[in-house]
Design a protein that fits this description.
Distance between the termini: 60 Å
CATH superfamily: Survival protein SurE-like phosphatase/nucleotidase
Order of helices and strands: EHEEEHEHEHEEEEEEHEH
Strand content: 25-35%
Number of helices: 6
Number of strands: 13
CATH class: Alpha Beta
Helix content: 25-40%
């Protein structure tokens, strides 16, 4: 029987501990092919490099480094370089959470989103706290979910965003299917001056908080549970379509 073929990417770079452990663990499930950025690409979102050429460098057997974004990596691999359509795309393991509104910024989620756009079942894997103490826990969850998805399939236009508490596997409180929570960002703009007197800026600030709500990804991880959030391709706010249609806005 032919092994499933799994494409692995991330937004932390091909040398990041998370992707190394993820690729190793998924080797228990199928044939793993890694296409990952050559450097950290955190918070690039679903960015595609349209205005410069991309270079792809082999680094090991079935492992390639791309000087681009996670979206670039998945697009290049699936549309050209692999020569076949993978059965699954897995992005991660990110050394920090991608909860609530984080998914709109996240390069980790974007890698899985691109896989979903290409019609491939896709997972985004993150540690629910900042740190990489228990990568083995997230890797074990990735293996379990990969096997489930490969066996049972996934609805079209859907990806799974997974956040795993940074605890030993036997201390997990279970697994919850969740909805997206809401972040409260408190970013500030820090203005500095270069040696020639020109202004430059850092976007920074405190760690974002969140709005407490039952059934959310935040609630799950706060209770020591793995959060699995199905994300959908369609961003339309269907509940308000009728409102705007009834307004009969004219040109």
């Amino acid at each position: 029987m032919t092994q499933p073929r799994i494409l692995v990417t991330n937004d932390d770079g091909i040398q990041a501990p998370g992707i190394i452990r993820l690729a190793e663990a998924l080797g228990e499930v199928g044939e793993v092919h890694v296409y990952a950025p050559d450097r950290e690409q955190s918070a690039v979102g679903h960015c595609v490099s349209l205005h410069r050429p991309l270079r792809v460098t082999p680094v090991a057997l079935r492992q390639f480094m791309v000087d681009g974004t996670p979206t670039d990596c998945v697009m290049l691999a699936v549309r050209d370089l692999l020569g076949f359509r993978p059965d699954l795309v897995v992005s991660g393991i990110n050394p920090g959470p991608n909860l609530g509104d984080d998914v709109t910024y996240s390069g980790t989620v974007a890698g899985a989103f691109e896989g979903m756009l290409l019609g491939i079942p896709s997972l985004a894997m993150s540690m629910a706290q900042r740190g990489i103490t228990h990568l083995d826990t997230a890797a074990a969850i990735a293996v379990r979910l990969a096997r489930h998805v490969l066996k049972n399939g996934m609805p079209a236009d859907t990806l799974l965003n997974v956040n795993v508490p940074d605890v030993p596997y036997d201390r997990l409180g279970g697994l919850s299917i969740t909805c997206m929570g809401r972040r409260s960002y408190e970013d500030e703009i820090i203005r500095r001056e270069d040696p020639r007197g020109g202004a430059y800026y850092w976007i920074g600030g405190a760690t974002p908080s969140h709005v407490p709500a039952p059934g959310t990804d935040f609630e799950a991880v706060e209770n020591g549970r793995v959060s699995v959030t199905p994300l959908h391709r369609d961003l339309t706010h269907h509940a308000v379509l009728a409102l705007f249609r009834e307004a009969n806005i004219q040109l």
